[in-house]
Amino acid sequence: MSDLAFLRDSTRIVQDFLTTAIVVDDQAFLFAEEAQDESFRHKQPLIVPARQAVDKPTPALTTSSGNSSHDKVDETESQRKESRISAQDQTLNGKLLIDRFGEFGVVCSVIRPHKTELKKLHETLKRFAPIADVFVLDWVLYGDVTGENTKALIRTLVSDLETDGDGRIRLIVVYTGETDLEQVTEEVKKGLDWFKGEIKKERFSVILPGTGTRIVVYGKDGTIRVEDAAKRSITVDQLPDTVVREFAEISRGLLPNAVMASITAIRRNAHQLLSRFPSSLDPAFVTQSILICPEKASEQIVPLIASEIASILEDARIGELIEAKHLREWLDHRIESKLCNPPTNSRVTREEYKAGFEKMIEDGASKEKLKVLAEQHANFRNEIVPGDRKKVAKAITARLASTTIESTGDAKLAMLMSLRHRYEGAKPQLSLGAVVANTHPKNGVEVTDYWVCLQPVCDSVRLKSNRSFPFVPLNLVDDTNEHVIVVEEGGDVRYLQGKYNPYLIEMIEFAPGQNEQVFAENLGGRPTFTSMDGRNFTWIAELRPAHAQRIAHRVAVEVGRIGLVESEWGRIK
C-alpha cells in the first residue's frame, strides 16, 4: 500500500537525518564486569505496579505476631519479583547502546554523571541542546525517585521555548526502570507547568504543540509492568529503532521530509563544500575586496555560499520528494490514518474522496481541469470542492486538514514563501522589503498605518549621516488578492495591499548606528525603528528579495507611465 510507502520513506529520511544522541544515566556501564561491581550498583526497591515510584520503599515484612521478616512469609515467585528490583534492572549497557546507534549512523554519547556533577550537567546539556538530535534521560538519578533531577534537566533542554516558540525539533526519551510509566508521564507534564503555551498529554507522552517538542516515556526491560505499560518495556538494543520511530512522529510530512533530506545532503557534502573555498583563494579574495571598495566583499560571500548549497540540493534531487507520486502516498497515509475523510453528512464515499483528490493532484485545478473533474467525479466536485477556482483554492486545505493549525496553513505557507525568517536572533535592518507599522492618533482614535520600505540595499549600508528612506503605503484588506502581502502581527494574520502611486511615497529620515546601518531596537518588547521626527515604526516582517523587488518594479512602472497626445479613435480600435 502507498500508505506504507509514505511511512517507509519518512522513516528512512529520519534515519538518515539523525546523527547525534545524548544519553544520561547514572548507572550506565561499558563492560559487563562493571555492572557486577557492588560498589557501582545502586539497589532500589521495586514498587508494585499499583504503586508509584514516589512511594516509600516497602518496609520489611512482619508476621501477625509482630516478628520481623526473619519469620518468613510465603511468597509466590511473582510477588517476590514485584516487591523488589535488582540493581541490574536499573543499569544501562552503554556499549551495546553505542554500538546499536552506530549501526544507524548515529554518534551516541553516554554521560554517567557523578553525584557531585549534577549541577554541572545542566551546563553540559545546555551546550548540547542546539546541536544534538535526541536526548535519552534516566528518571531516577542517584536515588531521586521523584524524578526532580530529570525534570530539571528537561527544563534546561527546552528552556528556550520561553523566548523562542520556533525552536528546534526536540525528542526527549525518558528511559526508566520505574514501573508506573503513566505516573512518570504525569510528573513530566507537571514539571512543565512553567510553560505558558499549550501542553498536550497523551498515553506515555507529553507534546508541546507548535514547538516541535515531544517527550516520551519508555521502560527498561526486566521490570514487571502491567497492561499498556508492559508494551512500553524495551531492551537497550531496541532503543535506537524506537528513537527513529518517535522522531518520525514529530517530523513526518511532505515538507519536513524535504527539509530533513536537504540537511542530510548538506551534511554529506560538507567537506566537498569546504573544499570549494580553499585558503589558496584568500589572496584573490583580498584583491576582490580592494578592487570593489567602498563596497564590501564580505557582502558577497553569503550569496556565494548559498548558491553552492542550492547546487547541492538540486543535485540531490530534493524536489522529487514532493512530486505527484509522493503526494498520492501522503494522501493515502492521511486517509488510512483517518486524518482526513469526507464529511459525515456527505454522500461522497472514501473511495470517491480519494479518487477525486488523486485526480486533482495529477491534473491541477485550472478552469478546464475543474470541468473534467466535474465530469469524471461529480459527487466529489459538487460536495468537496464546489464553486469556481477561487472557492476551490480555499476549500482544498480545509478538506485535507485535521487540526486548526493545519486549516490555517494557506496563510502560513504564503508567509513562508514570501517572507524572510530571521535566525540567530538577528536584529531587523531597515532596507528594501522591510514591512513596518506606525500607530498614531487620528480624530481621537488610534489608527495603524502599514508601509514597505523601497530603499535599495546598496543605499541602506555604509551610511555616514542621516538618510531618508522611501516608503510605499500598504492598505489593510480583508482577503487575499493578486500580489497581496501576508504577514503575522501579534498572532493575527494581516493581508496588506500595496498602493504604488508615486505621489503616495513618503520619505522618512533615520539616523544610522555605529555599524553604519539602521537596525531596529527593542521598544516595549518589539523591534522598532525610530525616525528623526520621533515616530516609531514597528518592524512586522521582511520580504524575500524577489518579492521586494517586484514591489519596486510596480512602483517603477507607475513612475514610467507615458502620457501621449494620440488619436483616441486609433487607440480605441
Task: Summarize the topology.
Blueprint: H1 2-17, E1 20-24, E2 28-29, H2 32-36, H3 77-82, H4 87-90, E3 92-93, H5 94-103, E4 107-111, H6 118-128, E5 134-137, H7 148-158, E6 170-176, H8 181-190, E7 200-202, E8 205-208, E9 213-220, H9 227-231, E10 233-234, H10 239-251, H11 254-268, H12 270-275, H13 282-291, H14 298-315, H15 324-336, H16 350-363, H17 367-376, H18 378-383, H19 389-400, H20 404-407, H21 409-418, E11 434-442, E12 445-453, E13 467-477, E14 485-489, E15 492-498, E16 506-510, E17 521-523, E18 526-530, E19 536-542, H22 545-559, H23 568-572
Parallel strand pairs: 1-4, 1-5, 2-3, 5-6, 6-9, 9-10
Antiparallel strand pairs: 7-8, 8-9, 11-12, 11-19, 12-13, 13-15, 13-16, 14-15, 17-18, 18-19
Helix pairs in contact: 1-10, 1-11, 1-15, 6-7, 15-16
N-C termini distance: 61 Å
Structural class: alpha/beta
* Approximate helicity band: 25-40%
Q: What's the number of extended β-strand segments? A: 19
Assigned CATH class of the largest domain: Alpha Beta
The CATH architecture of the largest domain is: 3-Layer(aba) Sandwich
Radius of gyration: 31 Å
3D shape? globular
Q: State which percent range the strand residues make up.
A: 15-25%
Helix run count: 23
CATH fold label of the largest domain: Rossmann fold
Oligomer: single chain
Sketch the major β-sheet.
9 strands, antiparallel
State the low-pLDDT regions, or none. Answer: 42-88
What is the total domain count?
4
Question: How confident is the prediction overall: mean pLDDT?
Answer: 86
